[in-house]
Amino acid sequence: MTTLNAVEPTPDQIKTFLASHEDGVPIYMLNLLKFKQTSTYSEGEQVSGAQAYARYAKAFGQMLRDQGLVGVETIFGGKVDRFLIGEGADAWDAVAIVRYPDKKSMFDAVSNETYRSFHFHRKAGLEGQLLIACDGSGVF
Q1: Where are the domains of the chain?
Q2: Which portions of the chain are predicted below pLDDT 50?
Q3: Helix, strand, or coil here: 38?
Q4: Which SUPFAM superfamilies match (predicted)?
Q5: Tens of pLDDT along 60-83?
Q6: Cα–Cα separations (whole angstroms), residue 110 to 19, 67, 123
Q7: Residue 3 — φ and ψ, nearest 5°?
Q8: Which residues contact 79 (CB under 8 A, 6 or more apart)?
Q9: Percent composition of the chain: helix, strand, coil (DSSP 3-state, to 5)
């Protein structure tokens, strides 16, 4: 199985995402995160990639509270420990699941001036990620 660890979505991925998810339906974003060993801030500050990403996550949460973006919540977040089935645990450092009320709420949250003001922490800390859109329909 081949996966592409990336930091930003491609224009085609955004187009497909927006076209494939119904309006007004909750969406869960599964984040598989790989951090840089050392951050890459343009001004040269050196912290771990995990610390840089933690700054991003803290600012994101504060933005949600400040802007009253209701219904956006982190359902789960944790460090990857080991794989029980399969291989590749060293490919990921952390996992998070974030719930958005719908696709519009998700894009509103990541497409505003406030978000752009702290997004650089994400880029400084992330080596790459997989961001998997999931619906809430349940599997079983």
Answers
A1: 24-135
A2: 1
A3: coil
A4: Dimeric alpha+beta barrel
A5: 999 998 988 888 889 999 999 888
A6: 18, 12, 14
A7: -125, 155
A8: 93, 94
A9: 35, 25, 40
Question: pTM of the predicted model, to two decimals?
Answer: 0.87
Taking a C-beta distance cutoff of 8 angstroms, is the pair 7, 129 a contact?
yes
Give the pLDDT score at 14.
84
Q: Is 45 helix (H, G, I), strand (E, B) or coil?
A: coil
Q: Which residue reads 């859109």 in tokens? A: 133
Q: Closest Cα to residue 70, out of 112, 39, 26?
A: 26
Smallest CA-to-CA distance from 90 within 5, 29, 6 is with 5
pLDDT of res. 28 = 94
Residue identified by tokens 């990857």 is 80
Burial letters 94-131, b for 16+ CB under 10 A, else e? bbbbbbbbbbebbeebeeeeebeebebbbbbbbbbbbb
Contacts of 116 (CB under 8 A, 6+ apart): none
Q: What ranges in the chain are assigned the alpha helix state H?
A: 11-20, 49-67, 103-109, 113-125
